[in-house]
Automatic annotation (TrEMBL):
<dbReference type="InterPro" id="IPR006195">
    <property type="entry name" value="aa-tRNA-synth_II"/>
</dbReference>
<feature type="domain" description="Aminoacyl-transfer RNA synthetases class-II family profile">
    <location>
        <begin position="194"/>
        <end position="341"/>
    </location>
</feature>
<protein>
    <recommendedName>
        <fullName>Aminoacyl-transfer RNA synthetases class-II family profile domain-containing protein</fullName>
    </recommendedName>
</protein>
<feature type="region of interest" description="Disordered">
    <location>
        <begin position="1"/>
        <end position="25"/>
    </location>
</feature>
<dbReference type="InterPro" id="IPR045864">
    <property type="entry name" value="aa-tRNA-synth_II/BPL/LPL"/>
</dbReference>
<feature type="compositionally biased region" description="Low complexity">
    <location>
        <begin position="1"/>
        <end position="18"/>
    </location>
</feature>
Length: 353
């Protein structure tokens, strides 16, 4: 999404006046998807926007992960400066409240329904199914939800680490309440690849419902967070250029929901909190393939994270969209890896692929 384009993350009504006019971008999206399916880069499954990745695409994604982690380690130049962790695609539903996702992006979230009934309730469910009726009414929303951004579970985990300090300016509570402490963060760069869910099905293979994000996340002082975001945008752009893509870095905003969201988006852009690395997969339209975000105190305050002087931690994350980068490379170099430039193959360790 370029800064000037409207978001296409919510389904829009077809415009009746458009019926005779072919949309060249939509045609290009459909043609690209067909090419990817034919080459078995994408493996279709049952849901729109849900695909598996074939042998070649998976080799590219694996290469990207290794290359990006190596480059970040080289950049930090301190042994152990990057710490790799992994979280599953499911988290507690309360995370959607604690991160404000339910307030900001209700159109994108997904919770998980479960069946907890007895045999009688199951028989009623089966009767509906046999009658061809919807059976999902027999389920109810569980305490679990799908993770929409790879970094979210990290904040929850860090808040539970034992290394705590008194919160800045607040005395330690003693008379019965929980001590007012915050978990200490120290500028470590956390590396994590996470499966993300966003309810934004689209004919565009660049916009999936379930996709992987490789994130490099730092929690620390405001200066550390800002410097991390800047360095990652630079490192990320260089890496993508080295692979043969033409990219640019643009100020951006998230698709905050509703009327209030317009103001939030403007504020985010004015404060320069989000930048995207974009490339032209379709002529005349930029697609974000990575983004660098500063959250200021947003997560630090909610999850009780502090620097060692007790001040609320700032956070910044940089995310590579792994499928989007692989597909942008397929668009640039074709789906046959053997014909890719030697340098690209070498950087991605594709000699065996
Ligand atoms: P867009 O503006 O295209 O909706 P975004 O701002 O929502 O992207 P971020 O939330 O910054 O994206 O996520 C980080 C990266 O994850 C993006 O730069 C992109 O590469 C990738 N990404 C985001 N949404 C999708 C999606 N629906 N399908 C595939 N990759 C995605
Ligand atoms: Mg989006
Ligand atoms: Zn993030």
């Amino acid at each position: 999404m370029t800064p000037t384009e409207p978001t296409d993350s919510t389904p829009t009504e077809p415009n009746p006046t458009d019926q005779t006019e072919a949309d060249p971008t939509a045609e290009a999206e459909v043609a690209f998807e067909r090419e990817l399916l034919e080459a078995q880069w994408l493996l279709p499954t049952l849901g729109p926007g849900v695909t598996g990745t074939g042998v070649a695409m998976e080799a590219v994604i694996r290469g990207l992960e290794v290359l990006a982690r190596q480059r970040v380690e080289e950049h930090l130049d301190r042994p152990g400066a990057v710490r790799a962790v992994r979280f599953p695609p499911v988290n507690g539903r309360s995370m959607l409240e604690r991160t404000d996702y339910v307030a900001s992006f209700p159109q994108l979230l997904g919770t998980i329904d479960v069946f907890t009934g007895d045999t009688k309730a199951h028989r009623r469910l089966l009767a509906d199914r046999e009658a061809g009726l919807p059976w999902d009414g027999h389920l109810h929303t569980s305490d679990y939800a799908l993770v929409p951004a790879a970094c979210h579970p990290l904040y929850a985990w860090l808040s539970m680490t034992g290394n705590t300090a008194p919160a800045h300016g607040e005395p330690n509570g003693d008379g019965g309440g929980q001590p007012e402490t915050r978990a200490v963060v120290d500028g470590t760069v956390w590396a994590l690849t996470g499966d993300c869910f966003r309810n934004e099905p689209s004919p565009d293979p660049m916009r999936l419902v379930s996709f992987r994000m490789l994130e490099f996340v730092l929690l620390g002082t405001p200066e550390q967070a800002l410097a991390h975001r800047g360095a990652m945008l630079e490192l990320g752009s260089q890496l993508l250029r080295d692979l043969g893509l033409t990219v640019s870095v643009e100020g951006a905003n998230d698709p905050f929901f509703g009327r209030a969201g317009v103001m939030l988006a403007k504020g985010q852009r004015a404060a320069e909190l989000k930048f995207e690395i974009t490339t032209q997969v379709y002529a005349g339209r930029d697609t974000a393939i990575a983004s660098g975000n500063c959250h200021e105190e947003h997560f630090g305050a909610e999850f009780g994270l502090a620097t060692d002087d007790g001040a609320v931690a700032h956070s910044a994350c940089f995310g590579f969209g792994l499928e989007r980068i692989a597909l942008a490379l397929a668009r640039r170099h074709g789906t046959d890896l053997t014909t890719w430039p030697a340098r690209t193959r070498d950087l991605l360790g594709l000699e065996q692929a």
